[in-house]
From TrEMBL:
GO biological process per UniProt: regulation of Rab protein signal transduction
Lineage of the species this protein comes from: Eukaryota, Metazoa, Chordata, Craniata, Vertebrata
GO molecular function annotations of the record: guanyl-nucleotide exchange factor activity
Source organism of this protein record: Phyllostomus discolor
Main location: cytoplasm
Protein name: DENN domain-containing protein 3
UniProt keyword list: Cytoplasm, Guanine-nucleotide releasing factor, Phosphoprotein, Repeat, WD repeat
Residue span, UDENN domain: 76-508
Regions of compositional bias (Basic residues) in chain numbering: 78-89
Pfam families, per database record: dDENN, DENN, TPR_DENND3
Alphabetized SUPFAM superfamilies for the sequence: WD40 repeat-like
GO CC annotation: cytoplasmic vesicle
Length: 1280
């Protein structure tokens, strides 16, 4: 059964793709000594290398007997096992010599993995040529990167060594040959070079170098005819080593005498790093490193040079790691042999490496190349021409230089205080730990460089329509950085980077960007009003006149290319110049501790390599992995997942498909990030009928099989194109106008854009022409640019809060308090006086009593004047605003109305939205330039209109109880309903940062989106955690680091509270998960009860994530569960069932207390009064039963003006009921607070504009309510 399956299943390869022996051809060795004697010992001949033997997995199959595999895989009669049907070939018997006939690759006999070019391989193994030596030379290693026609890369490590030419027999294909034509004994003075090349899919440069070093020790001690056997055994060992899964688990293999470590990648998005990342920092000064990075970021044609073949690959690979998560997508050939030099004439971008001896030749023959000399640390250009390579932005570059200078790059200095290690492997482990620490620091500072350079890209993205406003982004860059960004924005690398940003990929860049954001920037990211520089940032901003002129000239013309930008002196115009040294904002690297790593030692491989030995090796692996798993702490899911992955992989290689699927099913629940979905799908599809049926009989595998098979393997790829913003060229209706405005980044809210559409189309056909849109866009951007360049005198800064921003400045006007400009922030109005710059306070919006527009007589004219009266001043402020008067009148009244609403509803977003309205008014008036412009702008005075038309006061009880409101849908195009709320208390955990120990509010929105707030400040902690794509029904905190989320798609998702990611899924339910309950009590085991709408209840062990028991309630409709008194209380629509072991008590809705058909919506247990409280659909009463007599008639608590109930919670001795009711004749979301002892409604709170959908308690001090889609906000209420 397993054999049949493996014939159709392409098993994952181990570390080895192939191993090749390369050396001189047989014929060239004939007469070698005679030629040497004729030419002299100093002039031995150069030979053309060729592939002598190829060894590729698998090296054993089930048909192999004890003698199988004795023949070597030669090129003439290669015997390579493949997944295809085995061909019957005549075997070459040992000792019979080579068959006659021409040599060369035989397509029928040799199947080369991944399309490795065997014709080019000899040149790459001997890139400097194959020369016979008159004396032995030291072994040497170099590294290769091989790329196939599809762009897939494999990695090679080549070890060269020399063997003497003996008098009896010569090494060739592992066989002795006694022929009279071989050289006499004097030929022992000739030493012939050979190379062993290991090709792997993974860049294990250090590990494979160590492995080859161990192999060479054995090759030097063996007979010539034993060489092939040793190489084949070596290759077979490597082929059996699985590739470690992403994460902290590294694999260790004993190669004798070395313990070789194969490190894993940090996460699925990261590359494998098995090299010393500080090598470029030893070869180049930091300024030169930046120049090379600039060449790569702008995708130049770059050639590295060195006298060391090994350094070519290692240094270029380090630079590519520096770019992560950006990826070099062009040609990459770090080692070019002498015959391949014409590759550097390619016209497209590439990254190549040549020996230093070819430097002059390449420099003269090719134009437009960047030449990087590793040995001298220089960066120049070919033909002495300056290549157009711009500099990395100055501030980011200076900070990078200072951080590099603070690194300790010399191990001897860092470890000088330690004693000498007397154990070889212990000394290597110490050095590896030091290198791991240094690699982490270097990765951190290069990633910091990229974040500093590209952080503000996200401010110019529109995620809904996948638009990048490149022109607006460029306008925000300093003139000296324009050339760099213009070139980078045109590269494939940056285009892929944009795709990842628009897809909201949480890679290393996004994680560092988020973790290093200031609190102010974090808040700005969700504000609905446009961004402006805050007062706190103004003192540090030093705008230059040239930069201001640059902004003024280009900001209003987004699509025109004929604007002349003031030229600045080019900084580092030549590649030979260094960037100036300067003081940066941070001169040291943060002490970055590498993540803790663990090792798993792979068992020994036994020889001869027959199927029994291989199966014994696999069995040893499974036993060791099982033993390691049994020793793990229950909460160590990180390591457990890696062990599941490896054991499943090994069992797959064994042919134990069912056991492998069980391990993968456990992995699916433990860490979804490393789940090999494609491999599991192919495993299931390859199963024979009986095996498949056996798997389907197991409930735990049935769901896994359905999951992997239902995933669309050939689904149409989602549109991930990146569009660039362009001004429209045709007339637009409302829908098209909404899209265009959202793409521009001005406003995202659909309702606000609809009001803007009405304003721009007043008195005309409901279409907006391109010219009007262009004028509006230009006015908006000009105002934005002016605000960015605004500076305030110190006297004004001293009176303003650091969080305030200047949103609008008037022209210079005459007022009754002096001449100057009126400034508007989100809090106040003030006057910037002229002459001697000063600050005159006008009013805060909270203190306004009256704002009116009138005229005053000045000589013979009537001048429009704005009059502002405040509550605490008798004097009325007057400003002769002239033509600006009507606009300022509208804007001040809108801000006043917004502030009033914000104070009444405890919702600061009213002020933010009022600011948006004000700035839109300004842009509309500037764009229309017509007598009706003010009337058009009045269409945007939304809050002022609400205040005048619907002056509904917030009820006193509501105002006193309401503490604050927050909006989880901020930044979305439309509000989203709040489906579930969960409060988790703060705690100190060594695994968390200090900021992460704050209490959190988890908010479930539509389509599996969870927003996390810091409950100590009510600011957004995590913008979005994705948990599936369906509606979320329930949440619960299981232990301190897990939040469980039940979904409509029948899956329980587990969010890690440390990483804020969802990598675990529980798929045992078959219907929508509707309830989650954590077992209380300090002595209770860690268990979670979950229920689904079909009546299934599962009990989970939190540590193992396994179901410990399950039971089924008949009838279905199960909507909620609760634990009390050792019993499980279940709400099943028309009944409440109490389950205690095998005993069940049921409370049914019958004619005794209801007049029409209904069902239970929610229930709460009040142990202090021994009561059960419940609400029913369509009723405005709350029903109360005594727990001792559930069969008796219930008591009732009437909810006045209630039309529907959705949720209910118990807080201390109160019952809070949320639903919909009438307030002042209008339907509103209402909350009823009931005293549980007296059974009376204490408070009736008008909570939201839409229904109250969910309630949760925060430590008994606050209650949080979430509203429906019309409002989509969360209210925070004080509990008395």
């Amino acid at each position: 059964m397993a054999e049949a399956a493996s014939q159709h299943l392409a098993l994952p390869s181990g570390l080895l793709e192939l191993c090749a022996l390369v050396g001189p051809p047989r014929d060239s060795l004939r007469g070698l000594e005679q030629a040497a004697q004729r030419r002299g010992s100093q002039s031995l001949p150069c030979l053309d290398p060729e592939v002598l033997s190829v060894f590729a997995p698998p090296f054993v199959s089930r048909e192999d007997g004890p003698l199988a595999g004795a023949g070597c895989g030669t090129l003439s009669k290669a015997k390579r096992r493949s997944f295809r049907k085995k061909r019957e070939k005549a075997k070459v018997e040992p000792g019979k010599g080579l068959p006659e006939g021409p040599r060369g690759p035989d397509a029928e006999d040799v199947s080369v993995p991944n399309g490795v070019d065997l014709l080019a391989l000899p040149q790459l193994c001997f890139p400097g040529g194959l020369s016979v030596a008159s004396e032995p030379k030291e072994d040497c290693v170099h590294f290769l990167v091989l790329t196939d026609v599809c762009g897939n890369r494999t990695h090679g490590v080549v070890a060269q060594y020399y063997r003497p030419l003996h008098d009896e027999h010569c090494f060739y294909n592992g066989r002795p040959h006694w022929e009279s034509s071989w050289p006499p004994a004097s030929a022992a003075g000739c030493f012939v070079p050979f190379a062993v090349c290991v090709v792997s899919s993974f860049p294990y440069y250090n590990a494979l170098r160590d492995c080859l070093s161990c192999l060479l020790v054995h090759l030097k001690l063996c007979k010539d005819f034993e060489v092939d056997k040793h190489i084949k055994d070596f290759a077979a060992k490597l082929s059996l080593i699985p590739s470690p899964p992403p994460g902290p688990l590294h694999l260790v293999f004993n190669m004798k005498p070395l313990q070789v470590v194969f490190p894993s990648r940090a996460d699925p998005e990261s590359p494998v790093i098995d090299l010393d990342l500080h090598l470029p920092l030893l070869c180049f000064r930091p300024e030169k490193v930046l120049q090379v990075l600039a060449c790569l970021l702008t995708e130049q044609r770059v050639v590295f040079f060195s006298a060391s073949w090994a350094l070519l690959t290692l240094v270029t690979e380090c630079f590519l790691v520096y770019l992560h998560p950006l990826r070099w997508q062009h040609t990459f050939v770090p080692v070019l042999s002498g015959q391949m030099l014409d590759f550097v004439m390619a016209p497209t971008s590439f990254l190549m490496g040549c020996h230093l001896r070819h430097f002059e030749e390449v420099s003269k023959e090719a134009d437009g190349l960047v030449l990087v000399n590793i040995d001298t640390g220089s960066v120049t250009s070919s033909n002495d021409e300056d290549v157009d390579v711009p500099d990395i932005p100055l501030l980011a570059a200076q900070t990078f230089v200072q951080r590099v200078q603070s690194l300790q790059l010399h191990r001897e200095l860092d470890l000088a205080h330690l004693g000498a290690s007397t154990d070889l492997n212990a000394g290597r482990a110490r050095r590896r730990a030091w290198q791991q620490q240094l690699n982490s620091q270097i990765q951190r500072l290069t990633l910091q460089l990229l974040v500093s350079v590209f952080r503000e890209v996200k401010n110019h993205l529109n995620y809904e329509h996948r638009v990048f406003n490149s022109e607006e982004f460029l306008k925000t860059r300093a003139p000296s950085d324009q050339r760099f960004y213009k070139q980078v924005l045109e590269t494939y690398m940056f285009h892929s980077f944009l795709k990842a940003r628009l897809s909201r990929r949480m890679d290393a860049f996004a994680e560092l960007d988020l973790s290093t954001q200031s609190e102010e920037d974090r808040i700005d990211g969700v504000l609905v009003s446009p961004r402006r520089p805050t007062v706190g940032k103004m003192p540090s901003r030093k705008p230059s006149p040239l930069r201001a002129a640059h902004r003024r000239m280009v900001v209003s013309m987004p699509n025109l290319q004929d604007i002349a930008v003031p030229e600045l002196p080019p900084r580092n115009a030549s590649l030979r110049d260094d960037i100036p040294r300067g003081r940066g904002s941070s001169s040291s690297v943060a002490d970055v501790s590498p993540r803790p790593t663990y090792t798993f030692k792979i068992p020994e491989v036994h020889f001869p390599l027959v199927s029994q030995c291989v199966q014994a090796y696999y069995s040893d692996c499974v036993d060791l992995l099982s033993k390691a798993m049994s020793c793990l702490a229950p909460d160590n899911s990180v390591l457990l997942a890696r062990y599941f992955y490896l054991r499943g992989l090994v069992r797959l290689m064994q042919g134990e498909l069912l056991d492998a699927l069980l391990d993968f099913q456990s992995l699916y629940k433990t860490d979804l990030r490393i789940f090999p979905a494609d491999l599991v799908r192919r495993t299931v599809q390859s199963m024979a009928g009986p095996t498949r049926a056996q798997a389907e009989c197991r409930p735990e595998l049935r769901r896994l099989i359905s999951e992997v098979l239902e995933q669309p393997g050939e689904a149409p790829k989602a549109d991930d194109r990146v569009k660039h913003f362009e001004l429209p060229s045709k007339h637009m209706g409302l829908d098209e106008f909404v899209r265009r405005v959202q793409e521009s980044g001005i406003v995202r809210d659909v309702n606000t854009i609809s009001r803007l559409f009405e304003a721009l189309t007043v008195g005309q056909q409901k279409l907006i022409d391109p010219e009007t849109f262009k004028d509006f866009y230009t006015c908006w951007k000009e105002t934005e640019a002016e605000a960015q360049e605004a500076s305030l005198p110190a006297s004004a800064l001293a009176h303003l809060d650091k969080s305030e921003c200047v949103f609008k400045l008037s022209r210079s006007v005459k007022t009754n308090r002096g001449v100057g400009k009126i400034a508007m922030t989100q809090k106040r109005l003030f006057l910037l006086t002229e002459g001697k710059p000063g600050y005159v306070h006008i009013a805060t919006f909270r203190d306004l009593e009256e704002v009116r527009s009138s005229t005053v007589a000045v000589l013979f004219l009537r001048v429009p004047t704005l009059k502002i009266k405040t509550a605490f001043k008798k004097e009325v402020f007057e400003a002769n605003l002239k033509s600006e008067c009507d606009l300022w009148h509208l804007m001040v009244k809108e801000m006043w109305a917004g502030k009033t609403l914000a104070d009444d509803h405890k919702d600061p977003q009213y002020v933010q939205q009022a600011l948006t309205h004000v700035l839109l008014m300004d842009a509309v008036v500037g764009a229309l330039q017509s007598p009706g412009a003010i009337y058009a702008a009045s269409k945007l005075a939304h809050f002022d209109k609400m205040k005048s038309e619907m002056p509904t006061a917030v009820p006193k009880t509501t105002a006193e109880t309401l503490r604050h409101k927050i909006n989880p849908s901020a930044g979305e195009t439309v509000p989203q309903a709040v489906d579930v709320l969960l409060y988790t208390p703060g705690h100190l955990d060594p695994a968390e940062k200090a900021g992460d120990a704050h209490p959190k509010l988890w908010c479930a929105l539509h389509q599996g989106r969870v927003v996390v707030f810091d409950a100590s400040s009510w600011t957004v902690h995590q913008h979005c955690v994705r948990v599936g794509a369906s509606k979320l029904n329930c949440m619960a905190m299981a232990e301190q680091n897990q939040v469980w989320v039940g979904s409509e798609d029948s899956v329980i998702y587990i969010i890690n509270t440390h990483s804020m990611s969802c990598n675990k899924q529980l798929t045992d339910h078959r219907a929508s998960v509707t309830g989650l309950v954590v077992q209380d009590g300090p002595g209770a085991p860690s268990q979670v009860y979950s229920c689904s709408v079909d009546g299934t209840i599962l009990v989970w062990n939190v540590g193992t994530l396994r179901v410990t028991s399950r039971f089924q309630l008949s009838g279905g409709g199960l909507s909620a569960i609760s634990l009390h008194g050792g019993c499980l209380w279940c709400c099943t629509g028309n009944s409440i069932v109490v389950v205690s072991g095998c005993l069940r008590q049921e409370l049914k809705i019958d004619g005794g207390f209801q007049e029409r058909s209904t069902c239970f919506v929610a229930f709460q247990l009040v142990p202090e009064q021994a009561q059960l409280w419940a609400v029913c659909s369509g009723y405005d009463d709350v029903y109360v039963w005594g727990l001792e007599d559930l069969a008796g008639p219930p008591g009732r608590v009437h909810l006045p003006d209630c039309s529907e109930v959705h949720c209910m919670i118990r807080v201390k001795r109160q019952i809070w009921v949320g639903g919909t009711g009438l307030s002042q004749g209008r339907p509103k979301g209402k909350i009823y607070v009931i005293d549980a002892e007296r059974r009376t409604v204490e408070k009736e709170l008008v909570a939201h504009a839409d229904a109250v959908r969910t309630l949760c308690s925060a430590e008994g001090r606050y209650v949080l309510s979430g509203s429906g889609q019309e409002e989509g906000k969360i209210a925070i209420w004080t509990v008395e």
